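User: I'll paste a sequence; please echo it back and then give the predicted structure.

Assistant: Echoing your sequence first, then the prediction.
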Amino acid sequence: MTTIIMQPGQVSLKDWRTIYEGAPAVLHEDALPAVIASEQAVQRIIARNKPVYGINTGFGKLANVRIPDDQLAQLQHNIVISHAAGVGEPAPVNVIRLMMALKLASLGHGASGVKLETVKLLEAFLNEGITPVVPEKGSVGASGDLAPLSHMTMALIGLGDVLVDGKQMPAADAMAKASLTPLSLGPKEGLALLNGTQYSTAQALAGLFAAQHGFASALITGAMSTDAAKGSTAPMDPRIHALRGHQGQITVAAALRELLEGSTIRDSHLQCEKVQDPYCLRCQPQVMGA
């Protein structure tokens, strides 16, 4: 499949769906300088030797606890381990792939303070088909999908399990096979990777894609039912639906006309004496377009 090149803030719904369906994804090269600059900003903060939340302080109620510079990496490691507390069956692979791509696009804005190495490892996971095992139940909310994103980050640091070609294995083994090195989290990186709603967004998009698939199936079924019943396309006349003015109705009628265009079944009974088709066939644009 074609690799999706993501420009943060400009990824189309079609591209998200393509990633969901298995396409690899990378950040646009134009986003990389901002990523590098954001990591440099974190280093300048540390050099000033002043407390900044999430970089050289504890978290939550421990915000006033200063963390020594030689323990900053351990701090980020610990927050990942402590929040990897999801339960239940693994979430679907395509949902987790989408979550990783959404996180990648978010980091690509250059406002998170992560290393370029971190961004490149996320890209490698997507491109090598390495998917972290993320339990489907955990924290979900505006303050962050902390548990799901922790399980994702666990894999990046070589802990936990991943799926490769449907086979579950330790993350460290999968990374070794792909010649990848587990990430050593720098200051703020654990917090940056855990904060966000990429899991919620991925689940919402998965629901949308399923609805789109169901809607497309309904259109095809409707067109086939019209043909099977030797129905007329007259109720799909664009003038009827333009008069009502409902865009959904207009779009559905156009889609049904396109699906039935050139049907030899329809052409075979154009001059029949039937007055009208059953209501369920005549009102498809109104029902599906509502």
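DSSP finds 14 helices and seven strands in the chain. The mean pLDDT is 93.
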